Amino acid sequence: MGAVGPKLTWWPETALREYMPLNNARPSSSAFSSHPRVQRLPQARPPPCSATGSSFPKSLFTPGEGGGEKLKGEKKAEEYLGIETMAVEMANQSGDAANSIFSGVKLPVTLSWQDVVYKVKVKRGEKVILKGVSGCVQPGELLAMLGPSGSGKTTLLTLLGGRVAPTSRLTGSITYNGRPFSSPLKRTLGFVTQDDVLYAHLTVMETLYYTALLRLPSTLSRKEKAAQAEAVLDQLGLTVCRNNMIGSVLVRGISGGERKRVSIGQEMLINPSLLLLDEPTSGLDSTIAARIVSLLWKLTQTGGRTVAMTIHQPSSRLFYMFHKVLLLSDGNPVYFGKGSDALDYFNRIDYTPEIAMNPSDFLLDLANGVSANEETLEEKAATKQVLVEAYRVHLHPLVSEELTTLSKQFKEQGSELSTKKMKQEWSTSWWEQFEILLRRSLKERRHEAFSPRHLIQIFVVAIIVGILWFKSSDKVTDQVGLLYFVNSFWGMYPAFEGIYTFPMERTILTKERSSGMYRLSSYFMALTAGDLPMELILPTCFVLIIYWMCGLKSEAGNFFILLSSILVTVLVAQGVGLAIGAVLMDLKKASTLCSIFMLIFMLAGGFFVQNMPSFISWVKYISFNFYSFRLQLLSQYSPHETYDCGQETRCLVDDIPSVKVVGLRDAWLAVIVMFALLVFYRLVAYVALMRIGPGKK
Ligand SMILES: Nc1ncnc2c1ncn2[C@@H]1O[C@H](COP(=O)(O)OP(=O)(O)OP(=O)(O)O)[C@@H](O)[C@H]1O
Ligand SMILES: [Mg+2]
To answer: Any idea where the ABC transporter domain is (predicted)?
Structure first.
């Protein structure tokens, strides 16, 4: 291999000291095991899991600390990269305001994973995404997962975050302080997803503030929680856009980089023991990216936090901040160990960059199978295979050995570090959660709720109805038709609005429930209560407009009974929409099913068909339109009421065919059924939502 730059020829003495003969390397069965590069490392011993600690950054960022003089190689790297000054400066930029975020964590967490194999179902069988990945990251360490796109970084991070339910397609073990994932861990685990999941209409400050209110313990006052949100805001350089809306594809808001920082801030707020981040620096300029990584580095150094992140193309400055690096290639691990030793390992197996280059670029090239001479697809595949085999022979046995030692340690001191010690309770009470979620939901949906689209729709329909049935008090059959139209309109409109509620919230609900932010019941009540103003005010305005225009009975009693019956209809119809939306969680499917349901309910309501075949006539009893129509008729007509049906004769209203099917009787039965349906449909929606959450589909 050709000449290399100063940092690339550097061979850390620490690494040399740790390297020992590979006596326990398993013989390889693969054709690649005899490859000269796989056999190249007779004396190399890569940095073991527990030995990595924070020796590299300690000596790098805090001169004199870490007991003793810096090694020659480390000094050289510092001089070359100049990162010591940079990291310290950046970390100091945070200021005192954010000190609370950097206070120590209550329970340091060691995350270990061993031989993780993960498969997913695809059309033609199964696809193996992770093919036996092992490693660990301890308190005080920053782990970076590198690899080409599609190599399985996000999948591994998601598994490590306990966000995939255990299935037969996941084998191997993932432990936290030697124990499997448990619910209380959620509240001390921060997880930043690759895609930002945020409410579009809240401002940056509102987003952080509501998260602080929900996630921070009730031992802190609201003022203290707000101060914590302010500190994070300051820390992440978001002060300039604090009052800007987050935005979405449809609404212009803050930039992608700012949005990413808000997502990170939401997780930093809780002062997590274990922080997992999926590409926290993607889309950021190099200064902000460096600031974020140095902040994460500082989080590991103060208070014993454990941080793991996936990252694309970190600069060399950032690369040397990582205590550990895991390099993946097509789901296979090809390197796990100290970041500072990665190049040495590859040098040892005869992969050396020909020019001085960013180490992460070099590692990514290798993970893609690109080394100096290999260009064709076959050659790239062969390079990857050699790297996989080299890892299997040289690194895997050592990592496994270390993981076994760690697991033994945890078994011995298990009770001390048990996650069971962590409190199971929620951070806030049910009412607090309800109140905060209601306020947040009203803020988020204030634009939607009384949008001009809604208002115009309702007012135009009301005016048209008023004109068509203008002063029709003496035309009873027309008025029965009017009541049926009102009943159908308010049975249909809220249902179609309701189907949007949960499918639109799915990602946010999954994210927030995964971090144990609130109870499902408080979220459900808050969201449905948040819809009430729109659900109740608009129909009230509608009734106010049409009531006197159409000449309905002028007594207050009749008005209020009609209004209340319409409001109950609206709530039941909304429940149908919520239930269909929550069960299907797909807007297209939900609107199709909703139209079918509504059509059946409407037709069975008694107005259109009076003589249904007996085998299908039962449908009317499950149709809420049937009962709501009865209540609306009863609001205007008493059971024995008559009207002038021509030739100076009077007929019973109850004898009009469309009224007869429904009947002017049993008002209480209709009221009871309507309230029962109101609860029933919401219950269906609630049960359907229970499947949304950590590791659920
Ligand atoms: N549910 C799934 N069904 C089918 N394939 C899947 C599924 N989940 C992940 N994959 C595939 O697994 C591979 C790894 O995906 P993953 O998202 O973990 O990659 P990544 O390393 O995070 O990529 P990137 O850097 O682009 O984010 C990809 O090829 C992806 O298409
Ligand atoms: Mg990814």
So the answer is: 111-355
Instruction: Give yes or no for residue 332 CB within 6 A of ligand 1.
Output: no
Query: Distance between CA atoms of 570 and 565, rounded to whole angstroms?
Result: 9
Q: Which long-range contacts (CB under 8 A, 24 or more apart) does 648-656 make?
A: 653/476, 653/480, 656/476, 656/477, 656/480
CA distance 411 to 409: 5
Task: Report pLDDT digits (tens) over 279-292.
Answer: 988 877 888 788 88
Pocket probe for ligand 1: among 117, 123, 126, 155, the residue whose CB has the most ligand atoms within 8 Å is: 155
Q: What is the domain-level CATH number for residue 104? A: 3.40.50.300
234 within some domain: no
User: What separation in Å is there between the alpha carbon of 147 and the centre of ligand 2?
Assistant: 10
Residue 399, SS3 per DSSP = helix
Indicate which atom in ligand 1 lies nearest the CA of residue 331.
Answer: 14
Whether residue 495 is contained in a domain is answered as yes
CB atoms within 10 A of CB 648: 6
Name which residue sits closest to atom 18 of ligand 1, judged by CA: 152
From ligand 2's centre to the CA of 279, what distance in Å?
7
By the 8 A CB rule, do 601 and 677 touch? Answer: no
| 3 in any annotated domain | no
Residues of the chain with pLDDT under 70: 1-104, 372-374, 414-425, 449, 693-697
Name which residue sits closest to atom 30 of ligand 1, judged by CA: 150
pLDDT (0 to 100) of residue 9: 29
In sequence order, what are the residues at sequence separation of 6 or more whose Cβ sits closer than 8 angstroms to the Cβ of residue 686?
Answer: 520, 521, 524, 582
Domain end call among 376, 395, 421 = 421
Same domain (yes/no): 407, 451: no
**Whole-number pLDDT of residue 417:** 45
- Domain final residue pick, 377, 393, 421: 421
Kindly state the percentage of the chain with pLDDT values over 70. Answer: 82
For ligand 1, atom 2, the nearest C-alpha belongs to 120
Looking at the CA of 697, name the nearest ligand: 1
> Is 417:410 a contact under the CB 8 Å cutoff?
yes
Residue whose CA lies nearest to ligand 1 atom number 27? 149
pLDDT for position 284:
79
User: What local confidence, expressed as pLDDT, does residue 13 receive?
Assistant: 34
354 and 443 assigned to the same domain: no
Strand (E) positions, 375-461? Answer: none
216 phi/psi in degrees, rounded to 5: -85, 150
Q: How many CB atoms lie within 10 A of CB 248?
A: 14
Ligand 1 lined by 151 (C-beta under 6 Å):
yes
For ligand 1, atom 28: residue with the closest CA:
150
pLDDT number for residue 533: 79
Task: Return phi, psi of residue 294, to 5°.
Answer: -70, -30
Instruction: Give the CA distances from residue 562 to residues 384, 455, 544, 553, 556, in Å, rounded to whole numbers and listed in that order.
Output: 74, 21, 11, 10, 10
Q: Which domain holds residue 445?
A: 433-689
Ligand 1 center–CA 389 separation, angstroms: 23
Q: Which ligand is nearest to the CA of 127?
A: 1
In terms of Cα–Cα distance, which of 545, 546, 541, 536 is closest to 483? 546
